[in-house]
Amino acid sequence: MTSPPLDVSGRPLALRAIDWDPLFAPRSVAVIGATDTEGSPQRAQWRQARERLLARGAHAVHPVHPVKPAIDGVPAYRNVLDVPGDVDVAIVLVRDPLPVLEDCLAKGVRFAYVFAAGFAELGTEEGHAAQRRLEEVARGPMRIIGPNTNLNLIEPWREGLPGRKLAVVTQSGNQGRPVVQGQELGIGVHAWATVGNEVDLEFADFAAHFARTPGVGAIAAYVEGFVDGRTMRLAADEAVRAGVPIVCIKVGRSDQGQAMAKAHTGHLTGPDAVHDAVFRQSGVIRVDDIDEAIEVSGAFCHTPPLAGDRVALCVMSGGTGSHVADLCGLAGVPLPRLEERTIARLRELLPGYLHLGNPVDTGGVATARPEGRKVLEALIEDANTDVLLAPITGVFPGMSDAITRDLIALHERGGKPIVVAWTSPIRDADHRALCEAGIPVFHSFRTAVRGIRAMADFWALHRGYRGPFADAPREPSAALAAVRDRLVPGSTLDEVAAKDVLRAYGIPVVEEAVAASPDEAVAAAARFGYPVVLKALADGLAHKSDLGLVRVGLRDADGVRDAYAEIVAGASGLRLTGVVVQPQVTDAVAELILGVSHQAPFGPTLTFGLGGVFTEVVRDVSFRVPPFSREEALRMIGETRAPALLAGVRGRPAGDLDAVADAVMRLQTLALELGDSIRELDVNPLLVRPGGLGAVAVDALVITS
Questions:
Q1: Number of other CB atoms surrounding residue 121 within 10 Å
Q2: Rg, the chain, Cα only
Q3: Strand order in 360-361's β-sheet?
Q4: What kind and span of H or E run contains 485?
Q5: Could you tell me the sign of the dihedral formed by the alpha carbons of 363, 365, 368, 374, in that order?
Q6: Residues of the chain predicted below pLDDT 70
Q7: Alpha helix (H) ranges present in 56-172?
Q8: N or C: which end of the chain has fewer CB within 10 A?
Q9: Given this model, what pLDDT does residue 615 score?
Q10: Any bridge partners for residue 6, and if so which?
């Protein structure tokens, strides 16, 4: 197997290549641990596997049992090595799978399902040791699904449902079951992969494969933790390119959720805010519950790409219009002004006392009449809108059935997408008809609006998409050689050394000198020009301000001498190596923080936000994981209040936004090249000067791994 190319950090720039045909269309299958013993769970699994695989076209499904000569009348073999011919897939039902898997590897089996539990999900050393032994086997040519998995991947699914199909990837069987029951909403299912502990095949492998599969319209996922943040991003990159969105429930938003996830699959869920940021930059749609996952992913399967996010809202009451309009506003979904010709048509169709703008209130009076369809047609044909949203609030004979017929007829005619919010608890024939017609049906106003927002955002990303991995650096820069030897493992670089690292990567830093005496400090201050700043410089010193070891606004020699003496006295318990003298930046319009830290499972992660001494109190920050584009860097900056400050506040000049973006991109290069050697890096503050004058780092901290 050819190894994928690597970036400068040693991380892959492409997913591994897998020949999936033997898994999805196996010719010969061995079921190891098959039995016909009454009451045994393996009996049901054997029978289910044989029936389903033969129906899928497998030539033979062989039982393997150490004693029995036949299972259900089918000749059995004592060992997988005894099965005649090649074996594409082994289904391993035994409690101790390791010896069996070693035999499968020797046999040349291509894929193996491992049902057994009792591995890393236990959280014990024994469980982790057992999983490590499985990982050793998985380094061979045989691919392993599981352990702690089942046979959802060979389940049969209903045919003839409208639209594209949904692929499902879950780390929990029970959490996937209601998703695939989205078939009841007219959502066809292509396949459901339950990946369990992911000792080998992982979420990313299946997600990328499904994204490349013709006829798949969306991927719905339930994830407790990703094996590797880079492979997850590579899978998401494939999905955006293919126009197949990943709609993901990712648990771990709370301490309780994180603890349960670790107990269930042995994954570390990772910092939730970083997952949110990575999902945004990767085009993954994060949802919070199963119904939302079903309905949002199903909407992608049932609609063509949205051209935009402008909604025409047609309601049967003013209350509904107010409620949904409010939710649209909160979600950033515009309700544009309708064309004048549309409003003129509506005046001919509806009583003048109804609201004929957007939302359009039919009052229910026109719904059961021919005018009802003409109202819907007018909204669909309006050039100022991209999608029609029609809430159906309660089953009411003569109204709900009439609007259902009209919506289905318009949907079948093609053109602008239609979305329905069905908020009645009654699921009647009209509800079923909408689903069977392939119209996206949501069951709350909020989720319908959320779905439209998600579809518009994904298709906008897809249309202009250029993935970040093609331009990721593969060869180290000259800066790496210049600073690598300074990063002694397990150390904290002093401020001057930390800024030397920044300077090597082109991040502007303030001028400075290290003084060993008051006279040297005064001489440096005179050279820079007043006012100046003095700081203690000591090995392992991190937060100088907290210890009172910083003096600012010093305007003469006497002030510098006094400040020097105060810093030396205050640092009596430290190994002081000097006092740093810097010119004070007096024209800064904003104080920002830039940082690099390790965040599982993504590795080096950039932090950007408002800086200064109150950074941890304000907590106005955003995150990105390299590699990413300059456009993404600007989006990262835009997720904070920094652009508002940089635009100029209360007569202050505007800040140099381009210089901030430059600093982010240069720090990204540093993170890619040095990130695995650095546990934490802070630039705080990065002072942003007025437009054209740049930005400068005046303090920095580097802690090595």
A1: 22
A2: 31
A3: 360-361, 311-315, 387-392, 418-422, 441-442
A4: none
A5: negative
A6: 1, 254-271, 613-618
A7: 97-107, 125-138
A8: N
A9: 62
A10: 12
Q: In this structure, is the dihedral angle defined by the CA atoms of residues 527, 528, 529 and 534, taken in order, positive or negative?
A: negative
Give me 49's structure tokens: 């596997």
Q: Kindly state the DSSP code that residue 183 receives in the 8-state scheme.
A: G
* Cβ neighbours of residue 569 closer than 8 Å, sequence gap 6 or more: none
Q: Are 521 and 530 in contact (CB under 8 A)?
A: no
User: How far are the Cα atoms of 117, 169, 198, 221 from residue 149, in angstroms, in the given order?
Assistant: 8, 12, 9, 15
Using CA atoms, how far apart are residues 594 and 606, in angstroms rounded to an integer?
7
Instruction: Say what the pLDDT of residue 576 is.
Output: 92
691: DSSP letter? T
- The average confidence (pLDDT) of the chain is 93
Reading the block at residue 433, the tokens are 């008809």
The answer to whether the CB of 272 falls within 8 A of the CB of 252 is yes
Note every long-range contact of 117-122, with CB atoms under 8 Å and residues 24 or more positions apart, other chains counting: 117/147, 117/148, 118/147, 119/147, 119/148, 119/197, 119/199, 119/266, 120/197, 120/265, 120/266, 121/148, 121/197, 121/263, 121/264, 121/265, 121/266, 122/266
* Euclidean distance between CA atoms 177 and 168, whole angstroms: 10
pTM listed for this prediction: 0.93
Contacts of 242 (CB under 8 A, 6+ apart): 211, 212
- Whether 425 and 392 have beta carbons less than 8 Å apart is answered as no
